[in-house]
């Protein structure tokens, strides 16, 4: 796996930026790329904990299928910097309102100002506490058939029931393998139409709690039940509960709420990415729990375009106000800058 390094935390930051992007994944970097191309000053702050880091490759991404996640981010950072954007390593501690913008404080004490925020910090997968499960996450313990189904095709696949989507997920993975088993774990066995659909598709249901994963030669070989049985499996699908990384937004009154799917919490937004807090946009998994890398990147680009349009409107309003009042403090400051520039050039 290629792990890209972010610029050292000692890199000099400016006092203020048009936009600070919090989160350096696909959504954040593509948003920053669009903002850089729009000639905006942009800073990306990346905590360096991408959700897909355990995976060997990014799949379903046109022209980049199978690219290691770290390599994709490394290329993205280089492209953002090519348009004058900054990408630095760090974790945002707090964000507070400062005048008509924001003050962003990092955990290491650095602070910058931003006219607008684009938050793309993604989410955290909250996994069941089953011994051996987390260490296999992103390898032979997976969550998305469109991300990993091809890689585990025709294998003996287990589906661990963790919520109301368990039967749906088992039926989905049946597309990639004829050998699918649903483990009810701590949930009740399916009944009615659910049980009929599973039976019709040849999906076995194993009742009882899963105690641990059995691993041999660094490969998943089965699930050990609480009664001691071991059910042979080569891959395991788990629907994790998803939690938005958004604690630093609390001071702005922006907190995660339950997603309509019931599968976790997100920051709700308009289709443009605009949130209920003026000046704050979101994109990617922090608002869309089911966004894959390609759709997250597209959402980041779209939100950046809408955000830039909002800044343009503000720039026009300021220009019109200054035009109407030539003796405003802003015009006097601008005149002083022009006079100083003339003097530097000997005029």
From TrEMBL:
Catalytic activities: [thioredoxin]-dithiol + NADP(+) = [thioredoxin]-disulfide + NADPH + H(+)
InterPro entries: FAD/NAD-binding_dom (IPR023753), Ferredoxin-NADP_redctase_2 (IPR050097)
Flavoprotein among keywords: yes
Residues of the FAD/NAD(P)-binding domain: 17-299
Pfam families with a match to the protein in the record: Pyr_redox_2
Alphabetically ordered keywords of this record: Flavoprotein, Oxidoreductase
Family matches, as PANTHER family: THIOREDOXIN REDUCTASE 1-RELATED-RELATED
Full protein name: NAD(P)/FAD-dependent oxidoreductase
Taxonomic lineage of the native organism: Bacteria, Bacillati, Actinomycetota, Actinomycetes, Mycobacteriales
